[in-house]
Amino acid sequence: MSSFERICKILREGTKDEKKKMLESLSQTDDPKIIDKIVSRLDDTDIEIRGEAFSALLLNSNEISDILVKSLGHQSKNVRGYLALVLANRNSHDAIPSIIALVDDQSAMVRSCAVGALGHLKARQAVQAIAKCLADPNIEVRKSAIKSAIEIGSTELLESVESEDPEIRQMLESVK
User: Fold this and answer.
1) Which of 50, 71, 151, 166, by CA, is between 20 and 30 Å from 21?
2) Pfam families this protein is in (predicted)?
């Protein structure tokens, strides 16, 4: 069995501890096939495995952002959302256009992660995307958009935002 096959088998069939140890050991790989396997664990049923995959991608000091950006089109909403956050935490400014595209995702979780990632990256070019999310039907997306508008310094976006939600009102009052 090749090393890659062994990695795949452990990530697919191993115990939680075996999966966690494997993901930890892969945090410095630059092999695109292995990175894709790590990315797929962002959709694991176990939150600890998802967290370990997130950490492995975040802590990887290799230039893997292009591989991660390509995975933003993954079928899993967990993968799309968490990758937006990984890219933001890696300060991958080249990923901003791809993250902006995620504010139109069908999943509210992905939209929330994407707009939050744009705020973290202080993506001034994402003002329109953030403004769009301020009117999102999902309250968590709207909260993320408010935080992002504040983070990028576009508080003028918030002037017309109204809400009955106490948390949103508190966020808006803190800006005034």
Assistant:
1) 71
2) HEAT_2
User: How far is 32 from 68, CA to CA, in rounded Å?
Assistant: 9
Q: What is the DSSP letter of 44?
A: -
Between 47-59 and 77-89, two packed helices, what is the crossing angle to 10 degrees? 40
Answer whether 108's CB lies under 8 Å from 138's CB: yes
Q: How many residues does the chain have?
A: 176
- The arithmetic mean of pLDDT across residues 20-29, rounded, is 96
Contacts of 154 by beta carbon, 8 Å cutoff, 6+ apart: 124, 127, 130
pLDDT at 176 over 70: no
Query: Cα-Cα-Cα-Cα dihedral of 56, 148, 131, 125, to 10°?
Result: -70
- For residue 23, CA distances in Å to 26, 31, 134, 151 come to 5, 13, 36, 32
Q: For the residues 126-149, what does the mean pLDDT come to?
A: 94
